[in-house]
Specification:
alpha+beta; Helix Hairpins; 10 strands
Length: 417
C-alpha cells in the first residue's frame, strides 16, 4: 500500500466502527450518484469504491484489513490493504443490493423524460437502468458494470423502426413487394440477433474484464430456421428441444475474458419441465369440456376465466424459474460451475404478488417488483470456484492484455428494448 492514500473507510466515507448497514448504505449512495448524475463517477474512483466495499462488506476480510491497517498506522503509514477475496474451492454468492425506493427515482425520471422526448430519451433511460442493476449485482462482493452508449442503442432502435417502416410501406404496394420485404427481414433476423447479443455481452464487465459473444450467421440461421421449422411441423412437440438448443447456444458462444462458458443441459430435463404445465393445461381443458356438456357453456364463463387467468400466470412462471435453475446449474465458466436453486413456489408467489401490487398501484409498484425479482434470482445463485477466483481473474486480465483489444465494430448496435 502507498503512504498517504485513502483508507477503505475514507473512500466510502464511513467511520472505522461503521455497522454493516452503514457500509452498505454508503456503497448504495455511490452507485446511485453514479447512475443519477449527468457525469458518471470516474472509472478509477468507482473501482476504489468497489474495492473498499469488497473488503469492508466481508467480516473476515474486514478484520484482517483492520489488523493490517492498525499495524501500518503504528508504523506511521496509511493506505489500502490488498487481499484475496475468495479462498480455494469456496462458493462465491451473487447478491443484489439495490433498493426499490432508490430505483423508483431513476424509473420515474426515465419514464417522464422518455414520454416528453417522444421516446428519444429511452436510449439514455436504458443505460441508466442497466447501470443500476449491473452495479448493484455483486459476485463475491464485487459489482458488475454496464458500458453501453445511448447513441449506439438509439442507432439500433432507429434501424428497427426503419425495418418496420419498410415492411409497412411494402404492404401497401402489393403482395409481391410485401412478401419480398418479409423474406429479406426473415433472412436478416439471425444477423440482427447476433448483433444484439454481442452488444450486450461486450458492454458488460466484472472487475474490469469484459464479456463477449461470438457466433456466425450460419450457426444462428441453422439454429433458428431448422428448429423453427421442426417446431411447426411437429405442432410444438419440438419446442422444448428448440428451447434447450437456444439456451445452450447462447451460453456456449459467450465468454468472460478469454475463457468460454459451456452449457451441458440435457434435452430430457427440458421436456420434463414442460411436461407438468402441458399435463395441467390438457387436464383443465378436458374438465372444462366435460362440464360444458353437462351444465352448459354459459354457466362456465366465470370458472373458465378464473382458470385461464391462473394458468396464464402460474404455468409461464413455473417454466421460467425451472428453466433458469436448469440452465444455470448446467453451465460453467472454464472449471468454475454455477448453481441456481430458486424455490419454485416462492418465485410463483412473488410473480402473483408483484402483478397484484402493480395492478392496484396503477403501475407505480413496477420498480419495486423489478428489484424484488432481481434480489430473488441473485440470492439463490452461486459460483462454485475451482481454486481462487482472484487468481483466475488476474490470469484472465493478463491473457486479455497479451491478446490485445479487438478491433472496433462499426455495427455495434443494440436492438433490445
Amino acid at each position: 500500500m502507498q503512504a498517504g492514500s485513502a483508507t477503505y473507510y475514507e473512500v466510502l466515507g464511513v467511520p472505522v466502527d461503521a455497522t454493516p448497514e452503514e457500509i452498505l448504505n454508503a456503497y448504495r449512495e455511490y452507485l446511485l450518484e453514479s447512475t443519477l448524475s449527468a457525469d458518471a463517477l470516474e472509472t478509477d474512483m468507482l473501482d476504489r469504491v468497489r474495492a473498499a466495499f469488497d473488503v469492508l462488506n466481508n467480516q473476515e476480510a474486514r478484520q484482517k484489513y483492520d489488523r493490517e491497517l492498525a499495524s501500518m498506522s503504528a508504523e506511521g503509514k496509511g493506505g489500502a490493504v490488498a487481499m484475496d477475496a475468495l479462498g480455494a474451492g469456496k462458493a462465491a454468492r451473487f447478491e443484489f443490493v439495490g433498493d426499490g425506493a432508490a430505483y423508483f427515482r431513476i424509473w420515474i425520471v426515465n419514464l417522464c423524460l422518455s414520454i416528453l422526448s417522444l421516446g428519444i430519451y429511452s436510449a439514455w433511460a436504458k443505460v441508466r437502468r442497466e447501470q443500476y442493476f449491473h452495479r448493484n449485482t455483486l459476485l463475491d462482493g464485487s459489482g458488475f458494470d454496464y458500458h453501453g452508449q445511448p447513441l449506439a442503442i438509439l442507432k439500433g432502435r432507429g434501424l428497427a423502426l426503419a425495418l418496420v417502416g419498410i415492411l409497412s410501406l411494402t404492404e401497401k404496394l402489393g403482395p409481391a413487394p410485401y412478401l419480398a420485404a418479409l423474406a429479406m427481414l426473415f433472412l436478416a433476423a439471425p444477423w440482427l440477433i447476433i448483433r444484439a447479443l454481442s452488444f450486450r455481452a461486450a458492454n458488460t464487465s466484472y472487475r474490469g474484464l469484459r464479456f463477449s459473444f461470438n457466433a456466425s450467421y450460419g450457426q444462428m440461421a441453422k439454429l433458428i430456421f431448422v428448429n423453427g421449422l421442426l417446431s411447426l411441423v411437429t405442432f410444438g412437440l419440438w419446442l422444448p428441444r428448440f428451447t434447450r438448443d437456444w439456451r445452450k447456444f447462447v451460453v456456449d458462444h459467450a465468454a468472460f475474458g478469454s475463457t468460454g462458458f459451456a452449457c451441458e443441459l440435457k434435452v430430457g430435463r427440458v421436456y420434463r419441465i414442460y411436461l407438468l404445465p402441458l399435463s395441467i393445461a390438457c387436464f383443465s381443458a378436458f374438465v372444462l369440456g366435460a362440464l360444458s356438456v353437462m351444465i352448459g357453456e354459459s354457466l362456465l364463463l366465470i370458472p373458465v376465466g378464473i382458470i385461464a387467468l391462473g394458468l396464464y400466470f402460474l404455468l409461464p412462471a413455473y417454466i421460467a424459474v425451472s428453466l433458469s435453475n436448469a440452465v444455470w446449474s448446467s453451465s460453467r465458466l472454464g472449471a468454475h460451475r454455477f448453481v441456481s436453486e430458486i424455490p419454485i413456489s416462492l418465485y410463483i408467489r412473488m410473480v402473483l404478488g408483484n402483478w397484484l401490487a402493480i395492478v392496484f398501484s396503477l403501475g407505480i409498484f413496477i420498480p419495486w417488483a423489478q428489484v424484488r425479482m432481481a434480489r430473488l434470482r441473485t440470492e439463490h445463485l452461486k459460483l462454485m470456484a475451482d481454486g481462487q477466483l482472484d487468481a483466475f481473474i488476474a490470469g484472465e486480465q493478463r491473457n486479455v492484455s497479451a491478446l490485445g483489444e479487438g478491433a472496433s465494430d462499426m455495427f455495434a448496435i443494440d436492438l433490445a428494448i
